[in-house]
Amino acid sequence: MTMNIIKKGKGELFTDPDPDRARTFFQKKSKKMVNKAMTLSKAIETFVHDGEYFALGGFGANRTPIAACHEILRQGRKNMGFAGHTASHDFEILCAGEVFDRVDAGYIVGLEARGLSVCARRYMQTGKVKVTEWTNYSLSARLRAAAMGVPFIPTRNLLGTDTFECSAARIIECPYTGKKLALHPALYPDVGIIHVHESDVYGNVRVRGILKSDNDLARASKRVIVTCERLITNEEIRRDPTETTFPYFLVDAVCEVPYGGYPGTMAYEYFSDEEHLQEWLKAEEDSAVFKDFLQRNIYDCKDHHEYINKNGGMEKMLQLRTIEHLLHKEGKR
Amino acid sequence: MTTSYNAMELMICVASRELEDGSTLAVGTGAPCAAAMLAQKLNSPNLAIMFEAGSVSPQLPEMPISVGDSRASHKAVMVSTMGAIMETCQRGYVDYTFLGGAQIDIYGNLNSTYIGGTYQKPKVRFPGSGGANDFGSFCWKMMVLTVQDARRFVEKCEFITTPGWLQGGNSRYEAGLPEGTGPYKVFTNMAVMDFEPESRRMRIISTNPGYSVKDVQDNCGFELLKAPKITETLPPTEIELKILREEVDPHRYVIGR
User: Fold this and answer.
1) Nearest to B127 among A109, A134, A326 (CB)
2) How far apart are CA A235 and CA A254, in angstroms?
3) Taking residues B14-20, what's their average pLDDT?
């Protein structure tokens, strides 16, 4: 090796960046266009296992697979690795279930303008979770490298900071310009879960609005579970393929879960339920109250529909649709 | 005639004046976003706002709660990816960013990762970088909007999440960060600071109405340099306050804090 490594971050690399081992996995993966529609509980049971590393699509509490997070708690997954990439309400839920014991941290424990999660902080402050520090772009870049099928890509963030020191990045001198660059190792999650607007039963997916890193997450993940607001026909996909965000052969399971991003926002569909997200933050302040809160809202629910029905049902969904489309500004209540 | 205003309103109004028409800005939620909206609605209708979740040049109808929510991409010219936004910054297209943190130090480095304890078992864990390290590395001018408080303004951050001038002097560029980038101004309830061009240490350039240089120094955990001529910050104008209160933040999410 002639490339000059100037510095190594001290953080642990939780996943294997080797592109040939990933290629071998992808070679063996079935690319048949078969019906992959199934229930969410079946998908989580089949494709999400204790000890594995997973990542979620969406940004913060926007187009985030919340229904899948609840199901992961109900099925009691433990000792997992997690990509805390723009994580917010999803992170809060996963901490409540103590689902992971190692995390790549880009953005964790906060809910942006809503404040910080007491539950997530408490869990992260126990010392039980191994953390490697990154930035949001770092995790995007790592997924990009995996999606490209290369072991790393260089970027110009992290340099000079403690964020770098606690990462698993490397700083090298560019062989062309002599400039210092941060190398980001490819991140191939064992499983990626992405909530989308539409999919056909084969897993041809349409996403509207911002994508965050989900195009790369779908390509980088060894297995992909898609939850969708609605199923559409394959004929509709083929009618306008410019609308397709990623193709079927990446996808292992397709679960139709309307309002699957609730209580978060789903662009062009429904806005976040801010009252309920505040209920979460409030309940966390008292462990006994929070235990009952989780029991009622997650563990005692058969599925996401039951959770929604407990929190206002269709009436609430209509309100959130009104807010999303700013119809309240035109006088609709 | 004097118009009354609170500290948050003052900081937002003063900061918003930096964002000239036709410039580009990468920003998060909260007070910085309010400053961007105010600029867009008052003097800089062609201010291009970019949010890390993927939104390009939106026209914000109300304050976003998340930089990935539907408000953040309202009437945008494009919705894209985090990579596309961050790489636009990395390529040198983005003039400004506004950041904050639990701690800011003498060289404008920011800590939003943890305070107390150790990295693996922190006393208080914060969100970490999010997009802050990225914006602070890539955007030409980094600005900070925060409350003047000696616990927040510390000599040295416990953890440098986001690079400022690092250890001062030329250390930022020696570390490999893009030439010409770096902390530009800090806006607090008491003063506006910049960074002295040689040492890169924070210095007072103007005090806000009602505050003296001593007040600012008394609420800072390190010795501030003083610009050769320290001016008085222009207070919020009536039109700034009107737009801020009626159009930018009618529910007082930010200005009510």
Assistant:
1) A109
2) 17
3) 98
